[in-house]
Write a structure and sequence with these properties.
single chain; Rossmann fold; six-stranded parallel sheet; alpha/beta; 3 domains; about 325 residues; 434 Repressor (Amino-terminal Domain); about 45% helix; 12 helices; 11 strands; five-stranded parallel sheet; about 15% strand
Length: about 325
Protein backbone atom coordinates (compact mmCIF):
# COMPACT_ATOMS: atom_id res chain seq x y z
CA UNK A 1 0.00 0.00 0.00
CA UNK A 2 1.25 3.45 -0.95
CA UNK A 3 2.56 5.55 1.95
CA UNK A 4 0.79 8.91 2.34
CA UNK A 5 2.06 12.26 3.48
CA UNK A 6 -0.20 11.93 6.54
CA UNK A 7 1.65 8.75 7.61
CA UNK A 8 4.96 10.58 7.28
CA UNK A 9 3.61 13.35 9.50
CA UNK A 10 2.49 10.85 12.17
CA UNK A 11 5.81 9.01 12.08
CA UNK A 12 7.82 12.21 12.39
CA UNK A 13 5.50 13.72 15.00
CA UNK A 14 4.72 16.83 12.96
CA UNK A 15 1.76 18.27 11.04
CA UNK A 16 0.97 17.43 7.43
CA UNK A 17 1.70 21.03 6.42
CA UNK A 18 5.15 20.75 8.03
CA UNK A 19 5.91 17.68 5.93
CA UNK A 20 4.83 19.59 2.81
CA UNK A 21 7.09 22.46 3.74
CA UNK A 22 10.01 20.12 4.33
CA UNK A 23 9.50 18.58 0.89
CA UNK A 24 9.54 22.10 -0.58
CA UNK A 25 12.61 22.95 1.55
CA UNK A 26 10.89 25.89 3.24
CA UNK A 27 13.17 28.24 5.15
CA UNK A 28 10.50 28.49 7.87
CA UNK A 29 11.22 24.95 9.09
CA UNK A 30 14.18 24.29 11.40
CA UNK A 31 16.99 21.99 10.25
CA UNK A 32 16.33 19.56 13.10
CA UNK A 33 12.67 19.20 12.05
CA UNK A 34 13.67 18.82 8.41
CA UNK A 35 16.06 16.03 9.33
CA UNK A 36 13.41 14.21 11.37
CA UNK A 37 10.91 14.37 8.50
CA UNK A 38 13.50 13.28 5.92
CA UNK A 39 14.39 10.28 8.04
CA UNK A 40 10.70 9.31 8.21
CA UNK A 41 10.41 9.68 4.42
CA UNK A 42 13.40 7.41 3.92
CA UNK A 43 12.33 4.89 6.56
CA UNK A 44 8.80 4.53 5.14
CA UNK A 45 10.01 4.68 1.55
CA UNK A 46 7.66 7.54 0.71
CA UNK A 47 7.40 8.32 -3.01
CA UNK A 48 5.83 11.71 -3.79
CA UNK A 49 3.35 11.61 -6.65
CA UNK A 50 3.69 13.81 -9.71
CA UNK A 51 1.76 16.68 -8.17
CA UNK A 52 3.68 16.53 -4.91
CA UNK A 53 7.01 16.54 -6.72
CA UNK A 54 6.13 20.03 -7.85
CA UNK A 55 6.80 21.08 -4.28
CA UNK A 56 10.51 20.64 -4.93
CA UNK A 57 10.16 23.76 -7.04
CA UNK A 58 8.25 25.29 -4.14
CA UNK A 59 4.92 25.18 -5.96
CA UNK A 60 2.58 22.90 -7.86
CA UNK A 61 1.04 25.79 -9.82
CA UNK A 62 -2.41 24.47 -8.84
CA UNK A 63 -5.11 26.32 -6.89
CA UNK A 64 -7.91 24.47 -5.12
CA UNK A 65 -11.43 25.93 -5.28
CA UNK A 66 -14.03 24.71 -2.77
CA UNK A 67 -17.50 25.03 -4.30
CA UNK A 68 -20.44 25.19 -1.86
CA UNK A 69 -23.76 23.38 -1.94
CA UNK A 70 -25.40 26.08 -4.05
CA UNK A 71 -22.86 25.52 -6.84
CA UNK A 72 -24.19 22.01 -7.41
CA UNK A 73 -27.21 23.78 -8.89
CA UNK A 74 -24.90 26.09 -10.86
CA UNK A 75 -26.50 25.41 -14.23
CA UNK A 76 -29.72 26.99 -12.96
CA UNK A 77 -27.85 30.13 -11.88
CA UNK A 78 -25.30 32.19 -13.81
CA UNK A 79 -23.49 33.35 -10.67
CA UNK A 80 -21.15 30.41 -10.10
CA UNK A 81 -20.54 29.92 -13.82
CA UNK A 82 -19.38 33.52 -14.12
CA UNK A 83 -17.27 33.33 -10.95
CA UNK A 84 -15.60 30.18 -12.29
CA UNK A 85 -14.96 31.94 -15.59
CA UNK A 86 -13.21 34.79 -13.77
CA UNK A 87 -11.19 32.32 -11.70
CA UNK A 88 -10.17 30.22 -14.69
CA UNK A 89 -9.17 33.12 -16.95
CA UNK A 90 -7.09 34.85 -14.26
CA UNK A 91 -5.45 31.55 -13.25
CA UNK A 92 -4.46 30.93 -16.87
CA UNK A 93 -3.03 34.44 -17.09
CA UNK A 94 -0.99 33.76 -13.92
CA UNK A 95 0.14 30.31 -15.20
CA UNK A 96 -1.83 28.35 -12.59
CA UNK A 97 -4.22 25.42 -12.97
CA UNK A 98 -7.50 25.04 -11.08
CA UNK A 99 -8.78 22.02 -9.15
CA UNK A 100 -12.50 22.33 -8.35
CA UNK A 101 -14.14 20.38 -5.53
CA UNK A 102 -17.95 20.42 -5.28
CA UNK A 103 -19.41 19.97 -1.79
CA UNK A 104 -22.92 19.16 -0.59
CA UNK A 105 -22.85 20.81 2.82
CA UNK A 106 -20.78 22.74 5.36
CA UNK A 107 -19.21 19.59 6.84
CA UNK A 108 -18.15 18.36 3.41
CA UNK A 109 -16.60 21.76 2.62
CA UNK A 110 -14.47 21.47 5.76
CA UNK A 111 -13.39 17.91 5.00
CA UNK A 112 -12.56 18.82 1.39
CA UNK A 113 -10.49 21.77 2.57
CA UNK A 114 -8.48 19.51 4.88
CA UNK A 115 -7.97 16.86 2.20
CA UNK A 116 -6.78 19.40 -0.36
CA UNK A 117 -4.26 20.88 2.03
CA UNK A 118 -2.98 17.50 3.21
CA UNK A 119 -2.67 16.16 -0.34
CA UNK A 120 0.09 18.59 -1.23
CA UNK A 121 -1.63 19.04 -4.59
CA UNK A 122 -2.32 22.75 -4.29
CA UNK A 123 -0.41 25.93 -3.47
CA UNK A 124 -3.47 27.75 -2.18
CA UNK A 125 -7.22 27.41 -1.67
CA UNK A 126 -10.15 29.61 -2.65
CA UNK A 127 -13.33 29.28 -0.58
CA UNK A 128 -16.42 30.30 -2.55
CA UNK A 129 -18.53 31.27 0.47
CA UNK A 130 -18.18 32.19 4.11
CA UNK A 131 -20.45 31.89 7.13
CA UNK A 132 -20.54 32.46 10.88
CA UNK A 133 -17.98 30.36 12.80
CA UNK A 134 -16.50 29.10 9.53
CA UNK A 135 -14.49 25.96 10.33
CA UNK A 136 -12.68 25.91 7.00
CA UNK A 137 -11.34 29.42 7.52
CA UNK A 138 -10.21 28.67 11.07
CA UNK A 139 -8.48 25.48 9.91
CA UNK A 140 -6.60 27.24 7.09
CA UNK A 141 -5.51 30.00 9.47
CA UNK A 142 -4.29 27.44 11.98
CA UNK A 143 -2.29 25.64 9.29
CA UNK A 144 -0.95 28.96 7.96
CA UNK A 145 -1.85 27.87 4.45
CA UNK A 146 -2.46 30.44 1.67
CA UNK A 147 -6.17 30.97 1.02
CA UNK A 148 -8.68 33.56 -0.11
CA UNK A 149 -12.42 33.82 0.53
CA UNK A 150 -15.06 35.06 -1.90
CA UNK A 151 -17.32 36.71 0.63
CA UNK A 152 -16.71 38.98 3.62
CA UNK A 153 -15.52 36.82 6.54
CA UNK A 154 -16.89 37.18 10.04
CA UNK A 155 -13.34 37.56 11.42
CA UNK A 156 -11.14 39.53 9.04
CA UNK A 157 -7.81 39.21 10.86
CA UNK A 158 -5.24 37.27 8.79
CA UNK A 159 -7.88 36.54 6.14
CA UNK A 160 -7.63 37.44 2.48
CA UNK A 161 -11.03 38.09 0.94
CA UNK A 162 -12.91 39.70 -1.92
CA UNK A 163 -16.59 40.61 -2.04
CA UNK A 164 -19.23 43.04 -3.22
CA UNK A 165 -20.38 45.76 -0.89
CA UNK A 166 -23.49 43.71 -0.15
CA UNK A 167 -24.87 45.97 2.55
CA UNK A 168 -24.66 49.04 0.30
CA UNK A 169 -26.16 47.17 -2.66
CA UNK A 170 -29.20 46.07 -0.65
CA UNK A 171 -29.53 49.56 0.86
CA UNK A 172 -29.67 51.10 -2.64
CA UNK A 173 -31.97 48.35 -3.92
CA UNK A 174 -34.63 49.33 -1.39
CA UNK A 175 -34.40 52.99 -2.51
CA UNK A 176 -34.76 51.87 -6.12
CA UNK A 177 -37.80 49.66 -5.50
CA UNK A 178 -39.55 52.24 -3.32
CA UNK A 179 -38.79 55.33 -5.43
CA UNK A 180 -42.38 55.52 -6.76
CA UNK A 181 -44.12 54.09 -3.73
CA UNK A 182 -45.92 56.20 -1.09
CA UNK A 183 -44.41 56.66 2.35
CA UNK A 184 -45.38 54.19 5.07
CA UNK A 185 -45.44 51.36 2.55
CA UNK A 186 -44.31 47.81 3.24
CA UNK A 187 -41.33 45.91 1.85
CA UNK A 188 -40.13 42.34 2.35
CA UNK A 189 -36.71 40.70 2.17
CA UNK A 190 -36.63 37.18 0.70
CA UNK A 191 -33.47 35.21 1.42
CA UNK A 192 -31.98 31.96 2.72
CA UNK A 193 -29.24 30.53 4.95
CA UNK A 194 -28.96 33.09 7.74
CA UNK A 195 -25.42 31.91 8.59
CA UNK A 196 -23.96 33.13 5.30
CA UNK A 197 -22.30 36.54 5.60
CA UNK A 198 -23.77 37.49 2.22
CA UNK A 199 -27.26 37.01 3.65
CA UNK A 200 -26.36 38.85 6.85
CA UNK A 201 -24.85 41.87 5.06
CA UNK A 202 -27.63 42.25 2.49
CA UNK A 203 -30.20 41.97 5.26
CA UNK A 204 -28.42 44.73 7.23
CA UNK A 205 -28.50 47.07 4.23
CA UNK A 206 -32.16 46.25 3.61
CA UNK A 207 -33.17 46.95 7.20
CA UNK A 208 -31.21 50.21 7.43
CA UNK A 209 -32.70 51.56 4.21
CA UNK A 210 -36.23 50.52 5.20
CA UNK A 211 -35.82 52.23 8.57
CA UNK A 212 -34.58 55.47 6.99
CA UNK A 213 -37.54 55.51 4.61
CA UNK A 214 -40.00 54.78 7.42
CA UNK A 215 -41.13 51.53 5.85
CA UNK A 216 -42.71 48.52 7.51
CA UNK A 217 -40.27 45.73 6.73
CA UNK A 218 -40.40 41.97 7.04
CA UNK A 219 -37.78 39.26 6.54
CA UNK A 220 -38.47 35.78 5.16
CA UNK A 221 -35.59 33.32 5.17
CA UNK A 222 -35.75 29.91 3.55
CA UNK A 223 -33.51 26.93 4.10
CA UNK A 224 -31.71 26.92 0.74
CA UNK A 225 -31.23 28.88 -2.47
CA UNK A 226 -33.57 27.05 -4.80
CA UNK A 227 -36.59 27.63 -7.01
CA UNK A 228 -38.63 25.37 -4.78
CA UNK A 229 -37.83 27.51 -1.76
CA UNK A 230 -38.64 30.73 -3.63
CA UNK A 231 -41.99 29.26 -4.64
CA UNK A 232 -42.70 28.08 -1.08
CA UNK A 233 -41.89 31.49 0.42
CA UNK A 234 -44.15 33.27 -2.09
CA UNK A 235 -46.98 30.90 -1.25
CA UNK A 236 -46.44 31.50 2.48
CA UNK A 237 -46.43 35.30 2.08
CA UNK A 238 -49.45 35.67 -0.20
CA UNK A 239 -51.53 33.29 1.87
CA UNK A 240 -51.89 35.98 4.54
CA UNK A 241 -50.70 39.28 3.02
CA UNK A 242 -51.21 41.59 0.07
CA UNK A 243 -47.54 42.48 -0.33
CA UNK A 244 -46.08 44.11 -3.46
CA UNK A 245 -42.50 45.32 -2.74
CA UNK A 246 -39.66 42.82 -2.44
CA UNK A 247 -35.88 42.48 -2.27
CA UNK A 248 -34.98 38.92 -3.31
CA UNK A 249 -31.53 37.66 -2.43
CA UNK A 250 -30.59 35.70 -5.56
CA UNK A 251 -31.91 34.38 -8.85
CA UNK A 252 -32.98 30.85 -7.95
CA UNK A 253 -35.22 32.21 -5.21
CA UNK A 254 -36.43 34.86 -7.65
CA UNK A 255 -37.40 32.33 -10.34
CA UNK A 256 -39.44 30.23 -7.91
CA UNK A 257 -41.04 33.35 -6.48
CA UNK A 258 -42.06 34.60 -9.96
CA UNK A 259 -43.42 31.17 -10.88
CA UNK A 260 -45.87 31.36 -8.01
CA UNK A 261 -46.89 34.93 -8.94
CA UNK A 262 -47.54 33.87 -12.53
CA UNK A 263 -49.68 30.94 -11.46
CA UNK A 264 -51.76 33.22 -9.24
CA UNK A 265 -51.74 36.08 -11.83
CA UNK A 266 -50.19 38.47 -9.33
CA UNK A 267 -48.41 41.13 -11.38
CA UNK A 268 -48.75 44.29 -9.30
CA UNK A 269 -45.28 43.99 -7.70
CA UNK A 270 -41.97 45.86 -7.50
CA UNK A 271 -38.92 43.61 -7.10
CA UNK A 272 -35.15 44.03 -6.94
CA UNK A 273 -32.94 40.96 -7.09
CA UNK A 274 -29.25 40.17 -7.29
CA UNK A 275 -27.47 38.59 -10.31
CA UNK A 276 -28.23 39.01 -13.99
CA UNK A 277 -30.74 36.33 -14.89
CA UNK A 278 -33.01 35.81 -17.89
CA UNK A 279 -36.52 37.08 -17.31
CA UNK A 280 -39.75 36.57 -19.22
CA UNK A 281 -41.07 39.69 -20.97
CA UNK A 282 -43.90 40.04 -18.47
CA UNK A 283 -41.36 40.65 -15.67
CA UNK A 284 -38.91 42.98 -17.44
CA UNK A 285 -40.63 46.13 -16.15
CA UNK A 286 -41.41 44.67 -12.74
CA UNK A 287 -38.02 43.31 -11.68
CA UNK A 288 -34.84 45.37 -11.28
CA UNK A 289 -31.71 43.19 -11.53
CA UNK A 290 -28.49 44.15 -9.78
CA UNK A 291 -25.32 43.00 -11.53
CA UNK A 292 -22.94 41.83 -8.79
CA UNK A 293 -20.11 41.26 -11.29
CA UNK A 294 -19.30 37.63 -10.42
CA UNK A 295 -16.52 37.34 -13.01
CA UNK A 296 -14.70 40.23 -11.35
CA UNK A 297 -15.00 38.48 -7.98
CA UNK A 298 -13.30 35.37 -9.38
CA UNK A 299 -10.62 37.44 -11.11
CA UNK A 300 -9.82 39.43 -7.97
CA UNK A 301 -9.79 36.32 -5.74
CA UNK A 302 -7.15 34.60 -7.88
CA UNK A 303 -5.06 37.77 -8.10
CA UNK A 304 -4.99 38.11 -4.31
CA UNK A 305 -4.28 34.42 -3.72
CA UNK A 306 -1.45 34.21 -6.25
CA UNK A 307 0.12 37.41 -4.90
CA UNK A 308 0.00 35.86 -1.43
CA UNK A 309 1.62 32.62 -2.61
CA UNK A 310 4.34 34.48 -4.49
CA UNK A 311 5.02 37.01 -1.73
CA UNK A 312 3.74 40.02 -3.70
CA UNK A 313 0.61 40.80 -1.71
CA UNK A 314 -0.17 44.50 -1.34
CA UNK A 315 -3.71 44.41 0.03
CA UNK A 316 -5.58 41.91 2.17
CA UNK A 317 -9.04 42.54 0.73
CA UNK A 318 -10.79 43.94 -2.31
CA UNK A 319 -14.37 45.17 -2.54
CA UNK A 320 -15.96 45.12 -5.99
CA UNK A 321 -18.09 48.19 -6.70
CA UNK A 322 -21.61 47.41 -7.90
CA UNK A 323 -22.99 50.91 -8.32
CA UNK A 324 -26.54 51.09 -9.67
Amino acid sequence: MKVTIKEIAIDAGVSVSTVSRVISDSSKISESTKERVREAIKRLNYKPNIMARGLVKKKTAVLGVIMPEEAIKLFSSPFFIEVMQGISLKAKEKNYYIMYDFCKNEKEEYESTKKLLESGFVDGICLMSTRKEDKSIEYLKKMEFPFVVIGEPEKKDSTLWVDNNNSKAAYEAVKKVMSKEPKNSKIAFIGADEKLTMTINRMKGFQLSAKELGLTSEVYLGNEFSREEGYRLAKEIFKTENQKNFIILEDNLLKGFLQYLEEKTIFDVNIASFNKTNLKDIWREKVFLIDIKPEKLGDAAVSILVDSIEGKLETASRVIDISM
